[in-house]
Design goal:
The protein is α+β, with helices and mostly antiparallel strands. Helix content is 42%, strand content 23%. The protein folds into two domains: 96 residues, no CATH class; 128 residues, Aminoglycoside 3'-phosphotransferase, Chain: A, domain 2 (Alpha-Beta Complex), CATH 3.90.1200.10. The longest helix has 18 residues. The protein is globular. The two termini are 23 Å apart.
């Protein structure tokens, strides 16, 4: 899969600026700057690619006798996500660093590379929580995931972004409209479901908004023994913490 993704990235005209980052010899000095030592690029893997918009690349690095280390590069055509870079550093300072005694961490952001519109972070190890939840009846894992959400919601890290239940309904309405256009036979049923959702939302009690992940689902949590890693804080904002919990449960129900 990876070679196909790399080929797609290289062929994307909106990502012409990124082509040197796909060659080991030209990207090695950039990665060396991020880790603070000379490195050899052992492998480059395409992880995700959204044509004309963004991509994710993994770099395996070797340095002397040290074991291989992997960096994750997130690239956006419209420019580096500096907001998330600063946010993640703030969250780590608030207790999500590698030495956090509760075992709940966020991977370290390492470097912004403007010429490649790239944000480099350390790659966390572990197994996606969805794989473990799907194959396990261990209630302790569910409690650990709940603790991750609680820690994020309690961190008190501000954001200028907000996301309300009204915003959530607006997204749902837009998706229902697209499904209804593609499948007219479902339009009446979708309209009734959406009306019911609006009714339920109108009866929700007021809550104190907190910092929320806004894309919290099983693949965003890696479990590595007693450690847990929370990934992809790109959509972090202020909102109802139940949005994270509901999103996670919804994904698990679907699976």
């Amino acid at each position: 899969m990876s070679p196909d993704i790399l080929t797609a990235i290289a062929a994307d005209p909106a990502m012409d600026f990124l082509r040197p980052a796909l060659l080991p010899e030209s990207v090695a000095p950039v990665l060396a700057r991020a880790v603070g030592r000379e490195v050899e690029v052992a492998a480059i893997r395409g992880v995700r690619h959204k044509h004309g918009r963004r991509c994710v690349i993994d770099y395996d690095l070797r340095s002397g006798t040290e074991s291989t280390r992997t960096l994750v590069a997130k690239v956006r055509v419209k420019g580096v996500d500096r907001r998330t870079f600063t946010l993640v550093r703030t969250l780590r300072e608030s207790g999500f660093h590698e030495d956090a005694p509760d075992g709940i961490h966020i991977p370290e952001p390492l470097e912004i590379v403007p010429e490649f519109r790239m944000l480099l972070t350390a790659k966390a190890s572990g197994v996606p929580a969805g794989e473990l939840l799907h194959n396990s009846e261990d209630g302790d894992l569910a409690r650990r995931i709940a603790a991750i959400a609680w820690k994020l919601h309690s961190a008190g890290v501000p954001s200028q972004r907000t996301h309300t239940v009204k915003d959530e309904l607006s997204i749902l309405g837009d998706r229902f409209a697209k499904v209804g256009a593609a499948h007219p036979e479902l339009s009446d049923r979708l309209a009734k479901i959406f009306e019911r959702c609006e009714c339920i939302a109108s009866r929700l009690p007021p809550v104190s908004a907190t910092g929320i992940h806004r894309d919290f689902y099983p693949a965003q949590v890696l479990v590595d023994g007693l450690r847990s890693w929370l990934l992809d804080l790109d959509l972090y904002c202020i909102g109802d913490p139940a949005i994270d919990v509901g999103n996670f449960i919804g994904h698990m129900t679907e699976h």
